[in-house]
Amino acid sequence: MFEGSWRSSAWSELDRQWDAVVIGGGITGAGVFRLAVQLSLKTLLVEARDFSFGTSSRSSKLVHGGFRYLYNRQYGVTYKSVREREYLLKEAPNLVEPLPFTIPNYREYDFPSWLLHAGAIIYDLMGSKWDHQKLDPDEVLSKFNGLKEKNLIKGFRYKDAVLDDSRLVLRVIQEAIDRGGLALNYTKADRLLRTGDGKVHGVQVSDQSGEIGKTAEVKAQVVINATGPWTDSLRSGLEVPKRMRKLRGSHLIFDHQRFPASEALTLFHPDDGRAMFVIPWEGMTMVGTTDIDHDARLEKQYDEPFCSQDEIAYVLKAVNFLFPELEISGKDIVSTFSGLRPIISGGAASPSKESRAHEVWNEHGLITITGGKLTTFRLMALQTIREALRTAGIEKRAAHGLPMIDSIDIARPDDVEKEIFDYLSGRYGRRTGLLLQNAGQGEFEKINGLPNIWAEIRHAAGSEAVLHLDDLLLRRVRIGLLLPEGGKEWLPQIRAVAQPELGWSDTRWDAEEKAYLQTWQTYYSPWPG
Ligand code: FAD
Fold first, then answer.
1. Do residues 262 and 130 share a domain?
2. Ligand 1 atom nearest to 371, measured from its CA
3. What is the pTM of this model?
4. Overall number of domains in the chain
5. Residue 519 CB less than 6 A away from ligand 1
6. What is the number of alpha carbons within 13 Å of residue 268 lying toward its C-beta?
7. Is residue 60 part of a domain?
8. CA within 13 Å, CB half, 19
9. Rounded to 5 degrees, what are φ and ψ at 510?
10. DSSP bridge partners of 339
11. Is the CB of 127 under 6 A from ligand 1?
12. pLDDT tens for each residue of 331-380
């Protein structure tokens, strides 16, 4: 689909009558898009920036019940999330992978061990399995190099799951396209179209890629707002009260050699007792997250959220409280990233006390799906589709049980290592065969020892709707977050593989490279802002 002049041919189709238009190309929009297409609805998805540009590429990368939500008494959210985790572990092998977590309990924490143990039991019962363990201090210490020994009372081990969030979005969208859906990135919904009696019956969209330079009126039986933290912007056209609270969460990424973590660890911040995670991810160690109100002025001034110096200090304090021997400092940070949680405001004083539940609203025929978590995207899509069918007056169609991820039945070629094949099949699904087939000489090599290989760069550049270099290096592959200075040193090699696939002139490449390094410096570097 994303080859040659795909964007202009896609634009030439916009004036047809659509059954459904989905606005927002994060995981929520992707899930709804996929279900709608599978129910044989003629469906268009528009994304203002890049697919997964919003929160869905900036999460903690966990498919989890949210152990900590138990302590906030959000039992419903935890239960549904644990069930979805089990579903995704089964349906998306090699993309969603089991990840053991240890919670070390320290005297300073003020958490009785029985309470943590009870949490681990409830968590397992919700997932219909028995997978947690009690650990004595020596067992905990043997798992984590440099972990604080003083005042360690006990530990608990439970299992959740980890994934590449952006690749999940891309797989869900691409597999829906393969079934006949149309998805356009860099296409913004500017305003809702309404009938004389005020009912929403379409949306005006504008090209943001610069390749088309047009606007279009798109008519649909039903319009679905899946714009995550930006939910209220689109709703403002309906003169309804704002309901969202944007909560920023930031992570720091460290080199695994400097800060090793082969399993995940749950910790409680020494200042406020908030739960945080140390997570092994893509060969690196990721620590987060913060949870603070995002200042509206920052959004006006900056194109993307970024991790403030206060947040960096807050995360480093937690790391050094638990791993004092490692003496981790700002100099050890490889990259940072920040996202905005789409939270339906319940007026809680503390951001972390706000519910992570999702809701579906029908306002003048505009269906809004918001809140929730990446983990629960399937449930969110199911509920949205039911409401969408009802609103559009389309007869009920059974959506439950439809796959959200396609199974893969490609044989591994002899010259591709199993570890690499599994990694690719999780991230590229049925397109893995194409990726391997198009790989050039030496492109099964790993990029600087990361799990990524060079053939991914070729594939993504040629077939995955890349418009700018940051689409390629931050969202199709994640090496912009994993290599020092966003991969600056590797740019000549990346160029050799990607430029011919992208069809960019030397002038265009140079401009993209400059813009990418500027974006990285401002929003993803150890010294953002
Ligand atoms: P988004 O991903 O933000 O997508 C909305 C999209 O809409 C954006 O791409 C945006 O560009 C687009 N858009 C906006 N306006 C328009 C317009 N007018 N026209 C067209 N497009 C538009 N959940 C988990 O399950 N596990 C986790 O580990 C986890 N960790 C998290 C950590 C952090 C720090 C944060 C912030 C969130 C975390 N979450 C986690 C929550 C999860 O990431 C979000 O709930 C989820 O990604 C939201 O997806 P979305 O599609 O609703 O929003």
1. yes
2. 45
3. 0.97
4. 3
5. no
6. 15
7. no
8. 21
9. -60, -40
10. 249
11. no
12. 999 999 999 999 999 888 888 888 888 999 999 999 999 999 999 999 99
